[in-house]
Amino acid sequence: MSVFEWPVRVYWEDTDAGGVVYHTSYIRYFERGRTEWLRHLGYSQARLAEESRLLFTVVDLHTGFIRPARLDDLLTIRTRVLELGAATVTFGQEILRTTADELLVQGQVRVACLDAASFKPRRLPASLREELT
Predict the structure, then answer these.
(1) pLDDT value at position 1?
(2) Known catalytic residue: 14?
């Protein structure tokens, strides 16, 4: 799949006392980007858990902070698949200030596919795997 983009507005709750986005908020933005990307492909995480007994968990996360986002900024979250394993997906993600197309944060996130009952790794379903390649 190519790059998926999702808009996010910075709210007061995302910032520190100075109106600068707190570092953990970027991880939530990455999560929203991946979740909305799945939804765009027609997969609800709740439905995957209920019907397919499948969950995803973050197993590795690397983040590089370049510039800060601030209160009221409109951001773009870019998500792409970098690597597809049998039971893992590695995503490349970027957060940009939309108005200036300015790169703020880069990240690489590896998620594992788990069985919802046992929490043991399991292969990605073939239908989802096809969407990712």
Answers:
(1) 59
(2) no
